[in-house]
Amino acid sequence: MTIYIENIDNTEIVLDKERAHYLLNVMRCNIGDKIEIIDGKGKRYLAVIKSKGNLVAVSLMDTISVDIHPYPTILCQSIIKGANMDLIIRQTTELGVKEIYPLITQRTIVRETSRLKRWKRIAEESSEQSGRSYIPIIHEPVKLNEIVRGIDTQKDICLVFQKNGSRLNPSVFKNPVSKRIFLFIGPEGDFTVEELRMMSDVGIKSISLGRFVLRADTAGIIAVALVHHYIDDYE
Q1: Rounded-to-integer distance, Cα 195 and Cα 204, Å
Q2: In sequence order, what are the residues at sequence separation of 6 or more whose Cβ sits closer than 8 angstroms to the Cβ of residue 140?
Q3: Backbone angles phi, psi at 192, to 5 degrees
Q4: Of 191, 229, 168, 192, whose CA–CA distance to 76 is shortest?
Q5: How far is it, in rounded angstroms, from Cα 227 to Cα 229?
Q6: pTM of this prediction?
Q7: Distance of CA 178 to the CA centre of its chain
Q8: Domains and their CATH numbers in the chain
Q9: How many CB atoms lie within 10 A of CB 147?
Q10: What is the pLDDT along the chain (235 residues), one digit of tens a residue?
Q11: Under a CB-based contact definition with an 8 Å cutoff, are residues 71 and 99 in contact?
């Protein structure tokens, strides 16, 4: 059983109502049970559930581990409609993505969103459920040209996924720790010709995810899973 607590600065922490309810009523934990605490930045603690009057607290017993993030993967995902963006956040978090940029492109339908707080909460819950000690950073929505200007294709691995792209060479992921890996996924209508030319001009490589056309809410999940598979292979 793993829960996320932000800004751990004491050995005894009083839980908010939501987490207390989750532990005692959803997961059926009891006072005295031992659980795992993550701080979202790589530290993992062993703790025991304690009562404190009408409140529920956890007491930290020991530091289990200080983990290094295994994947330097940054998903630049064009914002898509409805709950599909929630699904992408949830599943790429489970897969170990390090950062997510909600991307605004020429064909992005949703350009302003109030869902950032919700996406961060989904990332926290998904990290708890999958037992990962890092919470991925969910950035504010950003325009495609702004993020492209901020990357260095000489130092970083930068890929845009396209039906007619080249076959992915797994050797590019050998020893990727010192690099960032940017994965660009287009909207439902895909990137425009101008956007693809802009990315190509700065050295972002066009890569295929297979012979079939994937939905926008499928491509990002597949891309992250595939890249992490190759990184694990080299390790």
Answers
A1: 11
A2: 102, 116
A3: -80, 165
A4: 191
A5: 5
A6: 0.89
A7: 19
A8: 2-66 (2.40.240.20), 73-234 (3.40.1280.10)
A9: 17
A10: 788 888 888 888 888 888 888 888 888 888 899 999 998 999 999 999 988 667 888 889 888 888 888 899 999 999 988 789 999 999 999 999 999 999 999 988 876 677 899 999 999 999 988 889 999 999 999 999 999 998 998 889 999 999 888 998 888 887 766 689 999 999 988 999 999 999 999 999 999 998 888 888 899 999 999 999 999 887 6
A11: no
